[in-house]
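User: New here, please read:
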Amino acid sequence: MTGISQNLTYQMRNDIIGKINKLPMRYFDQKTNGEVLSIITNDIDTLSFNLSQSITQIITSVCTIIGILIMMFSISWQMTLISLIILPVAGILVKNIVRKITKIFPKTTSLFGSSKSGK
Protein backbone atom coordinates (compact mmCIF):
# COMPACT_ATOMS: atom_id res chain seq x y z
CA MET A 1 0.00 0.00 0.00
CA THR A 2 2.73 2.41 0.98
CA GLY A 3 4.69 1.69 -2.19
CA ILE A 4 1.73 2.52 -4.42
CA SER A 5 1.07 5.72 -2.50
CA GLN A 6 4.72 6.76 -2.66
CA ASN A 7 4.93 6.07 -6.40
CA LEU A 8 1.83 8.18 -7.06
CA THR A 9 3.17 10.95 -4.83
CA TYR A 10 6.50 10.87 -6.65
CA GLN A 11 4.71 11.14 -10.00
CA MET A 12 2.60 14.06 -8.73
CA ARG A 13 5.70 15.88 -7.51
CA ASN A 14 7.36 15.43 -10.91
CA ASP A 15 4.24 16.71 -12.66
CA ILE A 16 4.18 19.76 -10.40
CA ILE A 17 7.85 20.49 -11.07
CA GLY A 18 7.08 20.39 -14.79
CA LYS A 19 4.17 22.76 -14.27
CA ILE A 20 6.25 25.17 -12.17
CA ASN A 21 8.94 25.26 -14.84
CA LYS A 22 6.31 26.32 -17.40
CA LEU A 23 4.85 29.14 -15.28
CA PRO A 24 5.63 32.69 -16.41
CA MET A 25 8.00 34.80 -14.31
CA ARG A 26 5.23 37.28 -13.40
CA TYR A 27 3.57 34.51 -11.35
CA PHE A 28 6.65 34.35 -9.12
CA ASP A 29 6.78 38.16 -8.95
CA GLN A 30 3.30 38.16 -7.41
CA LYS A 31 3.97 35.36 -4.89
CA THR A 32 6.89 34.67 -2.60
CA ASN A 33 8.97 31.54 -3.05
CA GLY A 34 8.01 30.35 0.42
CA GLU A 35 4.31 30.73 -0.34
CA VAL A 36 4.56 28.69 -3.56
CA LEU A 37 6.63 25.95 -1.91
CA SER A 38 4.38 25.85 1.15
CA ILE A 39 1.25 25.39 -0.96
CA ILE A 40 2.84 22.66 -3.05
CA THR A 41 4.33 20.81 -0.08
CA ASN A 42 1.17 20.92 2.03
CA ASP A 43 -1.10 19.88 -0.84
CA ILE A 44 1.09 16.96 -1.90
CA ASP A 45 1.52 15.76 1.69
CA THR A 46 -2.23 15.92 2.28
CA LEU A 47 -2.95 14.02 -0.94
CA SER A 48 -0.30 11.42 -0.11
CA PHE A 49 -1.73 10.85 3.38
CA ASN A 50 -5.31 10.57 2.13
CA LEU A 51 -4.27 8.33 -0.75
CA SER A 52 -2.47 5.87 1.49
CA GLN A 53 -5.45 5.68 3.83
CA SER A 54 -7.94 5.34 0.97
CA ILE A 55 -6.08 2.51 -0.72
CA THR A 56 -5.88 0.57 2.54
CA GLN A 57 -9.54 1.14 3.30
CA ILE A 58 -10.67 0.11 -0.20
CA ILE A 59 -8.73 -3.16 -0.04
CA THR A 60 -10.02 -3.86 3.46
CA SER A 61 -13.62 -3.16 2.40
CA VAL A 62 -13.39 -5.39 -0.67
CA CYS A 63 -11.96 -8.25 1.39
CA THR A 64 -14.70 -7.78 4.00
CA ILE A 65 -17.45 -7.89 1.37
CA ILE A 66 -15.97 -11.00 -0.23
CA GLY A 67 -15.71 -12.68 3.18
CA ILE A 68 -19.29 -11.78 4.06
CA LEU A 69 -20.56 -13.16 0.75
CA ILE A 70 -18.64 -16.42 1.26
CA MET A 71 -20.09 -16.81 4.76
CA MET A 72 -23.59 -15.99 3.54
CA PHE A 73 -23.37 -18.56 0.73
CA SER A 74 -22.05 -21.18 3.16
CA ILE A 75 -24.99 -20.61 5.51
CA SER A 76 -27.81 -20.41 2.94
CA TRP A 77 -27.40 -19.76 -0.75
CA GLN A 78 -31.14 -19.10 -1.18
CA MET A 79 -31.21 -16.32 1.39
CA THR A 80 -28.00 -14.89 -0.04
CA LEU A 81 -29.53 -14.66 -3.52
CA ILE A 82 -32.66 -13.05 -2.09
CA SER A 83 -30.63 -10.45 -0.23
CA LEU A 84 -28.51 -9.74 -3.32
CA ILE A 85 -31.72 -9.14 -5.30
CA ILE A 86 -33.27 -6.96 -2.59
CA LEU A 87 -30.22 -4.66 -2.22
CA PRO A 88 -30.38 -3.07 -5.71
CA VAL A 89 -34.16 -2.74 -5.46
CA ALA A 90 -33.80 -0.97 -2.10
CA GLY A 91 -31.08 1.26 -3.56
CA ILE A 92 -33.36 2.32 -6.41
CA LEU A 93 -36.20 3.05 -3.97
CA VAL A 94 -33.94 5.14 -1.75
CA LYS A 95 -32.63 7.03 -4.78
CA ASN A 96 -36.18 7.90 -5.86
CA ILE A 97 -37.18 8.98 -2.36
CA VAL A 98 -34.08 11.18 -2.01
CA ARG A 99 -34.78 12.76 -5.40
CA LYS A 100 -38.34 13.65 -4.28
CA ILE A 101 -37.16 14.93 -0.89
CA THR A 102 -34.52 17.20 -2.44
CA LYS A 103 -37.23 18.84 -4.55
CA ILE A 104 -39.39 19.40 -1.47
CA PHE A 105 -36.56 20.41 0.92
CA PRO A 106 -36.10 24.03 -0.25
CA LYS A 107 -39.82 24.61 0.34
CA THR A 108 -39.66 23.30 3.92
CA THR A 109 -36.58 25.30 4.95
CA SER A 110 -38.48 28.56 4.58
CA LEU A 111 -41.03 27.29 7.11
CA PHE A 112 -38.36 26.72 9.77
CA GLY A 113 -36.39 29.92 9.18
CA SER A 114 -33.38 29.21 7.04
CA SER A 115 -30.17 31.24 7.25
CA LYS A 116 -30.86 32.71 3.78
CA SER A 117 -33.87 34.63 5.05
CA GLY A 118 -31.66 36.63 7.43
CA LYS A 119 -33.66 35.74 10.57
